[in-house]
Design a protein that fits this description.
binds 2'-deoxycytidine-5'-monophosphate, globular, 3-stranded antiparallel sheet, 47% helix, Rossmann fold, alpha/beta
Length: 218
Amino acid sequence: MGKPLIIAIDGPAASGKSTVARRVARALNCVFVNSGEMYRAFTWWTLKNDVDPTDTDAVIRLLNDTSFTCGHEELIGFVEVAGQRLSEEELKNDAVNSSVSAIAAIAEVRARLVAEQRAFANESSLVMEGRDIGTVVFPDTPWKFFIDAAPEIRAARRNAEGIGDSIEARDRADSMRKASPLKVADDAMVIDSSHLDIDEVVDIVVNAIRWENESVAS
Ligand code: DC
């Protein structure tokens, strides 16, 4: 067995990175972690507690009173906020979609969740997807991928999922924030998925890793 693999997959909303990351993890027998779920879970908790997501001091007070439990089951990562595991509908509802960027822009929130994200690497090989995994969370990993797609294609993909999500506004906020903005790591492989299907993107990532890492079973 070689060293545990840490595979960072970043990209904007609806670029397909979640599906790709999940499939790459399955192909390589690694834990899959969706770091966006952590920001979404804490956003849900903020709204549940009637804390205004733009009131940074109040959000930080709540953060300091909140426990997070992270782990994985059958190689899929999960997060519990204040002891609660949330449903897909709770994590992706309209209120969370429109507030998550404000919460994710708060440096204290990021520091807390980045510590949880790094703890996953103590245990096993993993594929983690998000916005700053290659730039901030695991800057030393050689396995960095940035999955992009043209804005109109991403908007169409999100509409097809039937989810009301203003991805343009979210991407703008995620890219312009001071704390760990969405950007391409200097040493990331950029994959434009605009005209590729999921299988093709998964193959590019898995083959790039297998090509250079003989310890990965094929
Ligand atoms: O991947 P997603 O769309 O579910 O992420 C939701 C939000 O969480 C996204 O708009 C920005 C934030 N996020 C982040 O700031 N850093 C990450 N590593 C992952 C997500």
